[in-house]
Amino acid sequence: MRSNFVRRRNQFIAFSIFRMAIFANVLALAVFLGFIAINGASAISWEFLTEYPRRSMTEGGIWPCIVGTVYISLGSILVAFPLGVGTAIYLNEFSGGGRWTRLIRMGIINLAGVPSVVYGLFGLAFFVLYLNMGVSLLAGSLTLGAFILPLIIGSAEEALRNVPQSYREASLALGATKWQTIYKMVLPAALPGMLTGMILGVSRAAGETAPIMFTAAVFYTGKIPTSIFDEIMAMPYHIYVLATAGTHIDQTRHLQYGTALTLMFLVLGLNLAAIIVRNRLQKRL
Amino acid sequence: MSFISSQKKDLFVHGVFLIVGASGIIILTLIFLFLILEGLPIFDVVSVRDFVLGKEWYPTDINPDYGILPLIAGSAGVVALSSAMAIPLGVFSAIYLAEIAHPKTRAVIKPIVELIEGLPTVVIGFFGMVVVAPLLQELFDLGTGLNMFNASIMLAFMAVPTITSISEDAIYSVPRHMKEGSMALGATHWETIARVIIPASLAGISTAVVLGIARAIGETMVVLMVAGGAAMVPESIFDPVRPMPANIAAEMGNVPFRSDHYHALFAIGLVLFVFTFLFNLLASYLSERHKQVGAATL
After folding, report:
1. What is the ipTM of this complex?
2. Helix (H) or strand (E) holding B61
């Protein structure tokens, strides 16, 4: 039996290591956010947010990128939300948990693990080329929609599981059919939870680059998209292009920081909104 | 009458949801199908063996070489190195949050760590380029700060929240009576963690680790911007590398449609798809076992 002193010392050493690990994480995040915020803040102005890029993108603003990112995020949620909620309803309300259900779940788990660049390849081969949509808002929205589908399914299923079983039983006991029960009782109760997933889906879609690189985004387009077959500019791709591909990489550094900070604002703001919705919901239940 | 029709309607609704519910499987199948359709033609030009084990990747040469061994080595290198950083960091953080932290501290820090998971990867890559790279270059006196080591740091930063969040759930859900039993026998808190809690949650922790690694394999923007982009087998951790996702993203933009090079990039996508698929299968296998964690498994 080791002495109590040694045992307590070991505990102290181990716990100190654990504390340092979590501290390293939080510190890394703080340094990361700090750098982007400090360097980005000086670049952001009303003009930066509302003007078009000028002088082959070495000056001016990022308005088309903001619009493009908003459009494609909304487009992808328009694709993924109905499919995701439908899948969740099937899994949680209809399926009996047999082989077919296991297959569906297996598919979703693996879909969530497919690398983002592979989604890009798929979108290029299927939507852009095979279905002949071209590099367009539509092709990009469908690709990104497929990309965020597992996330939407997961959160919608959680929302459905949180609806008390007694809701369903009461409705069925009153003579409602299964569909009436789902439509009139379960869905309204689960909707706020699904909203959380929807916001997170938009946030994920807004920040993603690889799936839209070959399907929707281009270096530069002088106009705001007016149809779903137009190509777009998007903030994540804009950062990548300015930081790696230009001939003025150092000259446009402030534009890169500014775009990065704007994108982070959007993505983290949406995350925050999702957390707030979720907390309100938890209080109510 | 109306009873029968509403029954029919229910059957119809069931059918609709059955089809919608299959959308995930359909998309996964389509992804696989199109990778095969667009990827396999490269093997008319180069044998599978020469493709996977070939050491030269010169797809735009007059006599092009399509050997992806340097790209596989690049992927393996950054994934191994980033795992070596992210696994201890992620698991230790999880133990801290689940076992040591005050519940109020946990309630604040856990969402903060999970916030990292939602950061746009292109911004993480950008940070690696403009902040970490010059730092490394000066610190280690290197030719370029864009290399395997830098990419691994950024990948570890991204993988830690995945590992922490899932491991923490596993550790937190270890039944209370097991912990109390151990403490009542006179074990210290640390001894209880090391000998009871970690063994009991090992399946969950392994799931977390496998998912974290799977994420690192497929991550594109970070390795595209930070890894340096040289298609060669690395000899040192400070060598620039070109992992598979980076190679696809860098070259797909300017290849002619249905050229050999185009097919070769899809074949790399297929390799990547198979790798991550296997890792995900492993993760779901491990998490199936994790469900049985309880007093009976010790």
Report:
1. 0.91
2. none
